[in-house]
Structures are given as C-alpha cells and as structure tokens.
Amino acid sequence: MAEHLLTLTTDFGTRSPFVAAMKGVILNINPAARILDLSHEIPPFDLRHAAFFLAEALPYFPPGTLHVVVVDPEVGSSRALLLVSVAGQRVLVPDNGCWTLLAERYPDSLSVLRIEQQRLFRPQISSTFHGRDILAPVAAYLSLGIPSSEVGPPTHTWRKLDWPTPVHAPDGVHGEIVFVDHFGNLISNITGSLVSAGSWVGIGSPTAKPKPARLVRTYADASPGELVALVSSSGLLEVAIVQGNAAQQLGAGVGTPIHLGWLKE
After folding, report:
1. Is the N end or the C end of the chain the one with fewer CB atoms within 10 Å?
2. CA separation (Å) from 72 to 18, 152, 160, 192, 215?
C-alpha cells in the first residue's frame, strides 16, 4: 500500500554507509516499510539539480507516497526541516527550496508542516546527519500511520529556490540550460508550447553567434551526430546530438544560453 512506500533521494553517493544507516533506522521502527532508492547521485549540494529531479519524478508515484530528500548544504544550521504535502505526495526535506519547483507546478495541493516533535527523533542528534537522526525516524513513524499533524505545526513561510525565468523579447525567447541528463542532452527552461513550425533554435551566447540546432519531433528524425532541438518528455525545449553527447561536444552545461526565435516572413 502507498502508505508503506518510502523513497530516498540524496547526494550521498552509492559507496557511503549513510544511505544504509538511514534504512536501518527506518526498518528498526517499521520492519514492514518498503524502501525505494530514487537516486543517491544528486551532485553534492546541487539544489537546482535536486529540484528538477523531484519535479520530474515525484508526481508519478502513488498518492500518499513518502519521500525523504537529503540534499542539505546547511545541515546543523538553524534551517528548518519540513513535511511538505504536494501533488498527492508527502516529502520530508530540509527548508532549502529544493522542493519548490515541484510546488510551483502544483500550487493548489500544497501544505507545509515544520518538523519539531522531538519524540519522533532518535535520542541523540548528530549536527551533521539529520537525515539519519530526524528525517528517517519521522518517515518511519509516518509510514506506520501516525497523522502528519503530529510532526509539528503548519508553516506558511519557507525558502524558495531561485530558478531562472526565460526572457521574452521581440526576436524570441532567451532562456538557459537548467539540466543536463545522463546522455548529455541539454534541457532548457523554455516551455515547448512556444515552439512552432516557424521556430529556430540557437545554443550558446548571442554575442558569439549561437550554434543552430534543427527542430525535429524525435531523435529518429535526424541522422547520428546531428545537432537537433526538440520538445523533451518534460515539455521543455531540449538540445541534443543524436546518439552523441551535446554537453561534451558543445562544451555546454547548466547556465548555457539558449534562444528560441521565429523566422521572419
């Protein structure tokens, strides 16, 4: 059942003992918990990467799934820990904004609690591992069915992640790359709904003459090695090299400018 499904997302890597420790804490409290690893390869401290990952993955889980997210550059500081209900999911996460991109997409289903009920924590709290000592046990108790309201009081203030917004100009839309996937495809912050038959796409700085990418519907519409632009499965404008790595071959990455323009009649 969904209330026993519990996922973990961290920047710990797969070789450390930290993920295993969190699982041990959870299973000591709820031996029947179903724990699913989403990713432990979030780049260290990379809140934007985590934000995109969560926004793209979490809405597809069964309603009521519990997600523990530990990408926490400020662990041990006064930053809060939160239980966020959004898009039918429950997310235990540091108050650093990495969940707010997801919330922007589902603003009508949002409620946030500040985790303060210490009886749900481990007896001794490390200043460097709140994932093990606070988030993991709280998640375990929630998976046993305690009401969300028992973790702490509601809050209406939280940190919002600074996310780049495309700029609309007379000659088109200026955006930037916000995510690079495993294949080296470059995903932008320009929505695919703006792409039309008369569009053109350039990748790179406008002052250095952006490199043109041919608009296609799918990778199979182009030859291997060709630079293309298409609407990704995220609904965002993407630049790719067919059967190649656009990030490596173009020397591009997060923050690289991209331009969507319209052909003049």
Report:
1. C
2. 13, 20, 14, 32, 38
Say if residues 200 and 261 touch (Cβ distance below 8 Å): yes
Asked if 36 contacts 8 with a C-beta cutoff of 8 angstroms, the reply is: yes
Place of tokens 């922007």: 104
- Compute the distance between CA of residue 253 and CA of residue 68 in angstroms, rounded to an integer: 28
Q: Do residues 22 and 132 lie in contact, with contact meaning Cβ atoms separated by under 8 Å?
A: yes
E strand or H helix at 194: none
Q: Is 43 helix (H, G, I), strand (E, B) or coil?
A: coil
How many domains does the chain divide into?
2
92 & 172 share domain: no
3-state class of 229 per DSSP?
Answer: strand
What residue type is 251 in one-letter code? G
Residue type, 176: E
pLDDT single digits (tens) 19-30? 999 999 999 999
Q: What share of the chain is helix, strand, coil (3-state, %, to 5)?
A: 30, 30, 45
Domain encompassing residue 212: 167-262
The CATH number of whichever domain residue 75 belongs to comes to 3.40.50.10790
pLDDT in tens, 209-254: 889 999 999 999 999 999 999 999 999 999 999 999 999 999 999 9
Alpha helices in 58-192 (DSSP H): 100-105, 130, 136-143
Q: Are 133 and 171 part of one and the same domain?
A: no
CA–CA gap between residue 160 and residue 97 (Å, rounded): 5
Per residue in 80-105, pLDDT (tens digit) is 999 999 999 999 999 999 999 999 99
The answer to whether 237 and 198 are in contact (CB under 8 A) is: no
Closest alpha carbon to 176 in 146, 206, 197, 145: 206
Number of residues assigned to the chain: 265
Helix (H, G, I), strand (E, B) or coil at 16: coil
